[in-house]
Write a structure and sequence with these properties.
Structural class: mainly beta
Number of strands: 11
Largest sheet: 7 strands, mixed
Helix content: under 10%
Order of helices and strands: EEEEEEEEEEE
Number of helices: 0
Distance between the termini: 40 Å
Length: about 120
């Protein structure tokens, strides 16, 4: 089992930046591939980005590529999502997720955090 706690959300103006963090506890953090998802108003939860156990491989959805950067610090048991050039349509709840295997073609995750709210004003 792994427990995930997101932080770093908030209210920001369009064009601004945020860095979301997800702290993991429980089993060895390096055993998990990590991902970020979001649920924007009126839509289902969607994949944003993920990163392999070592951090060597990353993947992004087309809508955020170039603006979002996922990274991890295995010494701190934390995964980050740097969000730049924020747009109002980025508003939503951002979730951290973990799984014990990494696949660039799969978006199935086993463990989820509670989410952190990001609100972008125009």
């Amino acid at each position: 089992q792994v427990q995930l706690v997101e932080s770093g959300g908030g209210l920001v103006q369009a064009g601004g930046s945020l860095r979301l963090s997800c702290a993991a506890s429980g089993r060895t953090f390096i055993s998990y591939a990590m991902g970020w998802f979001r649920q924007t108003p009126g839509k289902e939860r969607e994949f944003v980005a993920d990163i392999s156990m070592s951090g060597a491989r990353t993947a992004y959805s087309g809508s955020v590529k170039g603006r979002f950067t996922i990274s991890r610090d295995n010494a701190k048991n934390t995964v980050y999502l740097q969000i730049n050039s924020l747009k109002p349509e980025d508003t939503g709840v951002y979730y951290c997720a973990a799984r014990t295997s990494y696949s660039p073609t799969s978006r199935q995750y086993d463990y989820w955090g509670q989410g952190t709210q990001v609100t972008v004003s125009s």
